[in-house]
Amino acid sequence: MTKRFRRGLVVGKFAPLHLGHESVIRCGLEECDELVIISYSQPEFSGCEPHKRQEWLTSLFPSARIVVVTNDWLRQVTSKSNAFTEVPANSAEDYLHRRFCAFLCEEVLGVTIDAVFSSEEYGNGFAAELSRSFAIEDSIRVQHCLVDLERQHFPISGTVLRADIHAGRRWLSPEVYRSFVRRICFLGGESSGKTTLVRILAGEFETQFVPEYGRELWEAKKGQLDFEDLVAIARRQVELEDRAAGISNRFLFCDTSPLTTRFYSKYLFGRVDPELERLSIRSYDAVMLCAPDFPFVQDGTRQPESFRTLQHEWYVRELTTLQIPFYLLEGDITARVATVKRLAQDFELPQELETI
Q: Quick one: DSSP state of residue 355?
């Protein structure tokens, strides 16, 4: 089916990218053969850095032509003689932002635009400036397509979201909100209380937890894992984390990580797949190591108690070698829950996203 426009444009800070932005972008995709999305901000907003905006836009709108502009990127793709060598400040006059976007389209991307999509009145002036810049005849001027000006469908703004990102999480796609969730990883030897702990904490914080996929597969295969299973376990663990983070509430509690899978790969097979090696140094917002001071419970599937001590000592060595800070959780479950709740205040993302 023939679309109204050959090429459309959406411009925004997307700090953060919310459902209102998405509705504008989807309208552009429906109306245009090709959609160009330009994002920039000067200064940047903490929590909405360029690489995150690139990830959000790419994951949600893979068919669009996405350009996240930074000063470094601009200097790489333009010469010193060009009109723009730096991103205009957010507070700059409207005409400067319009000229900057026209410059990016014409001089950097090598395209002209037929329609601008926005949810703001300023889009009219934006379209007019693009028409002048592209020297398009009056009969075929760049059009402004206004989407939900009154915010009836999505009554939200980036400013409001930055004031309390978690309170406004319903206005964010899971692909975006997961960037603001603090992932807390729990490590420990067998029968050290990890699984019980993450379940209780998820209930206390009214959020999600990620179970240990390796144990699920081990039980499904009746304890007969192959070498190739180990990297598959690590991949699946990461997938489960990413999925759960998008629907969490401030925190996500993770029962183990690919680092544990690397331990078992070395223990069972004497070697580690290179991909598993890479996944095993996955970053978390906090790492909790459960001390082996719990009464050991042999459920018929675990190694002897001495193995738990060996495993704990391995975690301490590896985390220290990798320079990954960790908190040692000791005592009974009640004491450990209290410790995590106290520590949570230290590594929680501030509600307000300050500019940097």
A: B
Is the CB of residue 154 less than 8 Å from the CB of residue 168?
no
Question: Residue 276 has which token pair?
Answer: 């598993």
Q: Evaluate if residue 297 carries a pLDDT over 50.
A: yes
What are the structure tokens assigned to 200, written together?
């209780």
- Inter-residue contact 228 to 272 (CB < 8 Å): no
Among 157, 174, 191, give the residue marking a domain's end: 174
Calculate ∠ Cα 211-235-253, nearest 5°.
30
- Which residues 6+ apart lie within 8 Å of 240 measured at CB? 210, 211, 213
CA distance 254 to 210: 5
The pTM assigned to this predicted structure is 0.89
Same domain, 199 and 133: no
Q: Nearest Cα to 123, choosing from 7, 24, 23, 234?
A: 24
Q: How many domains in the chain?
A: 2
Q: Is the per-residue pLDDT at 352 higher than 90?
A: no
- Per-residue pLDDT band for 134 (boundaries 50, 70, 90) equals confident
DSSP string of 245-260, one letter each residue: HTT-BSEEEEE--HHH
Q: How many CA atoms lie within 13 A of 166 on its CB side?
A: 16
229, two tokens = 């299973």
